[in-house]
Each structure stands twice: as structure tokens, then as C-alpha cells.
């Protein structure tokens, strides 16, 4: 039996008082796709930074093709044959496809760039990836995110990569680009390259991976072949307890109409959107990227200008300003929690209370003790894992940051929650917590609009689902009347 392509064993790494990794082992075999699974904060990123040379381990060893492997930096790892494809692509948008692929590994002859040889190598790797139609002289910024990702993969191949790590590679891709990415990964696998695939979507993992390894709290806790394991078993390893339901259902009953939209139009999109939302109801909004889902929520919350139409909350027609919408009972959680949804360098307490500070204010002074007590209560209710209310948000895992964003709208006593991709980029265990919380809020009489690109969760969690296409809300049905195929049919507009 041939030796594994890559082996890591006994890997440990500490940052101050935090033990990020403890005695972690990982095996990557040639021509196999390994899924690295774990909750946010489990140690996946730290382990991959050790593999890529960005961090030096405190203990442990690594071998690549049977030889000792100990890169002193990312460039050394790349030259040894280990390449990383990050969620945020590391490319130069103003350069061409060829220049991006060859960046740092240019071919020179007599001190000048050998464009002929470079172009031949670029065409070879693009052919190998099944994209001979992609021209080397194309400006990178003119390409879709999916094709830009392909350029980054080509850059790894031109350097004779032996192991390629994909870190949440589908988070910004359309469904079509996801399918093309999976085809590329299968090509890499067939050529004998070892692939490590990191994703929070178990459906993706099962479609493209052969085996898995689970991290929890910086420890290796399980591994195996995917075809011999059930989702509940894998999730149980991730969270450290038995998980009966990936989509927990809390009984709730829709009541009186709370929110009414009549002919809502943005400057470009959305177009002529009308519907009613009831207390105790979860309304899902599906659609392709660019269909207008986010724009609908932003117009509802008055973050984007509205050209016409009416928004009514109970009997109130709030002015088109976020402050007026907040007073009327609307709360918005942005899909971009890093740049827009949270103040990353401020504390949990600040982020939770910024939109409703008046209850702690008297004569212009804040009662910080009362605010701290209130924020602590919300942290306990939402199970936010942190040192305390004064810890900065940017020090938290993605899942805990998302809970802080939810705590903010709940703290401001919003009756209508506008949630834009609230489970994107967070682990399965935290997703289940958020699904349960949504059900509990609906049971309390809150109304929720839930935008998601993940059809499985919409059909599992919502009471009704509407589909947006080209800026219009085409159809709303009870969730039992939809299938994923029907949702996609309406989303692509084929019924026209």
C-alpha cells in the first residue's frame, strides 16, 4: 500500500493562553478529496496555516511524499507543492489571466519575460482544467468570481501543486459556478492531486469528497469514509453531543398581518413587490444571485432609496429612514457582517446596544452597569461564546458574530426581523441553533423574512417561500407546495 501523500501528526499550536491545536493528526492521500470539518473556532484555519507555512507549530511533524515537510513560510510551502485557495481570492484584478497565473513564477530569458513559454504553460493548465476557451490575455477583473477562482487554481497547477486546499470555496459562487468548480476538483483528483476541502455544507461535502476528518476545540475527534457515515454522526462529532435534528422545528402559528408591502419599487430593483407577513410567520425568499433579494430587504429597511410603493407595519406607515423603520419595529441583519453588519473593532456590548441606547441613558449619561447586565442576559440566551460583554467582536468566531448581530435586533425589540443570509459561513451546529431561535421567535409572535441561497434550509425552516427573479417576487407558496426543482425553475424565469 503506497504511503500517504501528506501526513500531519501531533500538531499543536498555542496563542498566549489559547490552545488552538492540540495533538492534531491529518492524512491526505493522492487522488482523494478529504473534507476537513469542524465548527467555527475548531482549529481548521490554524491547522491549514500550519500546513501552508503561515504558522510554525509548537509541536508535531509533517511529511510530503514521504519526506520531511517543514515550510518556513507560504512561499516555501507553495514551492514544495502545497497551495491554498482561500475564500477571499488572492489575485491582482488589474493584471491579465496569464500574469496572475505566472505571478511570482515568471519565465525569463536573458533577463526578459519569455511570453511565448509563459503563454504555452498557461494554456496547458487551462486545458487541464477543462477551460481552453479562457484567453490568457483577458483582464482578470472582467471575469466572474467563479472564473477568477479557476485562475487561482491554475496558478497552483503551473507550480506543480501536489496538495491543494480549498477553504469555503463556494460561498460567493452561483450554482452554475459551483458545479463547474466540482468538475475541476474531480479533474484534480483524477490527476493524482490530493485535495483538502473545507465547507460548512454537508451536501457539498458528500457530493465532492471521499473522506472526512473532524476537529473540535483544537483536537482531532474523528475521521472516516463519507459513504459509511451519516450526517448526524458527523455533526455529533463536531458539536460533542448527539444531534437528533439538523433542522429543529419549533411549533408556531401565524396570526394577524403585521407587515404589508404594496407595489414596492427601488430605483432599479426590486420591482413592484407586494405581500403580507403575519405575526408568528417565517417567510423565506429564494432566488439566484442578483435577483434582488438583498435589495428588497434594504429597501424595506430604507437603507436603499425607494422610488414608489408603501410599507405598512400594523397601522403605521414609517418614513423612509432606518431610524423610523427601527421605531416601527423592523430589525435588519446584513449579509455582510464584516463590513456592514457589525462594528468589528467595538465590543459585544456596543454592537448589541448601538441601535437602542436610550433605555440606558439619563441626562446624557449611560448606565454602563445596567447595559452590561442586559447584554450578558442576551449572550446567555443566544449562547454567545465569549470572554464577556466587553470583548471585541472581531475576536469571535463567525457563528458567534452572527449571534451578536441577532442580539442587536432582538435587543431593539424588533417585531419584524429581516435576516439576509444569516447562516452563511457558519458551522452546522450554530446553524441548528439559529434555526431553533427563529422558530422560538416566531412562537413568541415575531415575524421573520429569511433570505437564503441554501434551498434546503428554506424548505426546512420556513412556513412560506417566495422566489425572486429579475427583481420581481414571482410567487409565494406554502413550503409544502414547493420542491427544490420548482424553486429553481421559477428563479431562472423559465416559466416565462
Task: Describe what this molecule looks like in 3D.
The chain is of the alpha/beta class and 496 residues long. It is 33% helix and 25% strand. It contains 17 helices and 23 strands. The protein has helices at 44-51, 74-80, 97-102, 115-128, 145-158, 175-190, 202-208, 231-239, 293-300, 322-328, 337-341, 348-353, 368-381, 398-411, 428-443, 455-461, 484-491; strands spanning 6-15, 18-28, 33-37, 59-64, 67-68, 82-85, 108-109, 112-113, 163-167, 194-198, 211-216, 219-225, 257-266, 273-278, 282-287, 306-313, 330-333, 361-362, 365-366, 416-420, 447-451, 464-469, 472-478. The strands form six sheets. It has a six-stranded mixed sheet with strand order 6-9-10-3-11-12, with helices on both faces. Strand 18 and strand 19 form a beta hairpin. Helix 4 (115-128) packs across helix 5. The longest helix is centred in the middle third of the chain and has 16 residues, at 175-190. The mean pLDDT is 88.
Strand content: 25-35%
Please state the CA-atom Rg, rounded to the nearest Å. Answer: 24 Å
Provide the low-confidence segments as ranges.
Answer: none
N→C terminal distance: 57 Å
Helix fraction, binned, reads 25-40%
Average pLDDT metric: 88
Q: What's the oligomerization state? A: single chain
Structural class by helix and strand composition: alpha/beta
Total helical elements: 17
Amino acid at each position: 500500500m503506497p504511503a500517504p501523500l501528506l501526513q500531519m501528526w501531533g500538531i499543536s499550536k498555542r496563542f498566549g493562553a489559547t490552545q488552538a491545536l492540540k495533538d492534531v493528526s491529518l492524512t491526505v492521500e493522492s487522488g482523494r478529496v478529504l473534507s476537513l470539518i469542524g465548527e467555527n473556532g475548531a482549529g481548521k484555519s490554524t491547522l491549514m496555516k500550519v500546513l501552508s507555512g503561515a504558522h510554525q507549530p509548537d509541536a508535531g511533524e509533517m511529511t510530503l511524499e514521504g519526506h520531511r515537510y517543514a515550510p518556513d513560510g507560504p512561499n516555501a510551502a507553495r514551492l514544495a507543492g502545497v497551495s491554498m485557495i482561500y475564500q477571499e481570492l488572492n489575485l491582482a484584478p488589474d493584471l491579465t489571466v496569464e500574469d496572475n497565473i505566472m505571478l511570482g513564477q515568471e519565465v525569463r530569458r536573458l533577463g526578459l519575460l519569455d511570453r511565448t513559454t509563459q503563454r504555452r504553460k498557461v494554456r496547458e493548465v487551462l486545458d487541464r482544467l477543462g477551460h481552453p476557451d479562457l484567453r490568457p490575455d483577458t483582464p482578470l477583473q472582467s471575469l466572474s468570481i467563479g472564473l477568477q477562482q479557476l485562475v487561482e487554481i491554475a496558478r497552483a497547477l503551473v507550480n506543480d501543486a501536489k496538495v491543494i486546499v480549498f477553504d469555503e470555496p463556494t460561498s460567493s459562487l452561483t450554482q452554475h459556478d459551483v458545479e463547474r468548480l466540482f468538475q475541476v476538483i474531480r479533474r484534480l483528483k483524477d490527476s493524482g492531486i490530493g485535495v483538502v476541502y473545507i465547507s460548512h455544507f454537508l451536501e457539498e461535502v458528500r457530493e465532492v469528497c471521499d473522506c472526512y476528518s473532524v476537529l473540535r476545540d483544537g483536537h482531532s475527534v474523528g475521521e472516516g469514509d463519507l459513504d459509511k457515515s451519516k450526517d448526524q454522526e458527523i455533526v455529533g462529532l463536531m458539536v460533542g453531543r448527539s444531534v437528533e435534528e439538523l433542522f429543529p422545528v419549533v411549533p408556531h402559528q401565524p396570526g394577524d398581518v403585521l407587515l404589508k408591502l404594496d407595489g414596492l419599487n427601488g430605483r432599479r430593483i426590486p420591482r413592484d413587490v407586494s405581500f403580507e407577513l403575519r405575526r408568528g410567520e417565517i417567510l423565506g425568499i429564494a432566488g439566484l444571485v442578483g435577483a434582488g433579494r438583498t435589495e428588497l430587504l434594504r429597501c424595506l429597511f430604507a437603507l436603499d432609496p425607494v422610488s414608489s410603493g408603501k410599507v405598512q407595519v400594523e397601522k403605521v406607515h414609517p418614513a423612509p429612514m432606518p431610524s423610523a423603520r427601527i421605531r416601527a419595529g423592523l430589525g435588519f441583519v446584513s449579509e455582510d457582517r464584516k463590513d456592514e453588519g457589525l462594528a468589528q473593532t467595538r465590543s459585544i456590548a456596543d454592537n448589541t446596544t448601538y441601535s437602542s441606547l436610550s433605555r440606558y441613558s439619563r441626562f446624557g449619561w449611560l448606565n454602563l452597569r445596567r447595559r452590561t447586565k442586559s447584554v450578558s442576559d442576551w449572550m446567555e440566551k443566544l449562547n454567545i461564546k465569549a470572554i464577556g460583554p466587553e470583548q471585541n467582536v472581531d475576536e469571535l468566531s463567525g457563528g458567534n458574530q452572527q449571534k451578536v448581530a441577532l442580539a442587536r435586533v432582538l435587543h431593539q425589540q424588533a417585531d419584524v426581523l429581516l435576516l439576509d443570509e444569516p447562516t452563511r459561513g457558519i458551522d452546522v451546529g450554530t446553524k441548528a441553533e439559529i434555526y431553533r431561535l427563529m422558530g422560538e421567535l416566531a412562537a413568541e409572535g415575531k415575524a421573520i423574512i429569511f433570505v437564503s441561497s441554501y434551498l434546503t434550509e428554506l424548505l426546512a425552516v420556513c412556513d412560506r417561500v417566495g422566489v425572486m427573479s429579475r427583481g420581481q417576487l414571482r410567487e409565494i407558496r406554502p413550503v409544502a407546495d414547493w420542491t427544490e426543482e420548482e424553486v429553481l425553475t421559477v428563479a431562472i424565469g423559465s416559466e416565462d
